[in-house]
Amino acid sequence: MNDTLLRTCRRLFLRGFTTQASIGIHDFELVNTQRIIIDVDVYVSLDATHPSHDSIEEVVNYDFIRAVLHARIARGHIGLQETLCDDIMNSLLEHTGVLAARVSTRKPDVYPDCEAVGVEAFRAKPGVL
Hints:
Elements: H1 3-8, E1 9-21, H2 27-31, E2 34-45, H3 63-74, H4 81-94, E3 98-107, E4 117-124
Antiparallel strand pairs: 1-2, 2-3, 3-4
Helix pairs in contact: 3-4
């Protein structure tokens, strides 16, 4: 992890968001939804999210992370996990309070001999790092 983010940011996270999604390129994936698990970290300015009055208006409300995930899944079929990661990442980084984000997706039911197959991406807004 970049030292700048560790020194200047607060990390909000969502772990194990599990849903059924239409995702994949193989014939069997095109006709059925499958379980997908998503993990998200967003990095926000520590200085800009200091809750001196213990009020939600003083911080980035992480409910928007779930809203981004639900909205992307609802848009319809996704061919690649890379596309899903990029779409989620782009939406997260549109939030003015988010400086950087990490998105991980995994499909746990693809192969019987492994826990999951997945993709992870990290990106910061220009000038953050």
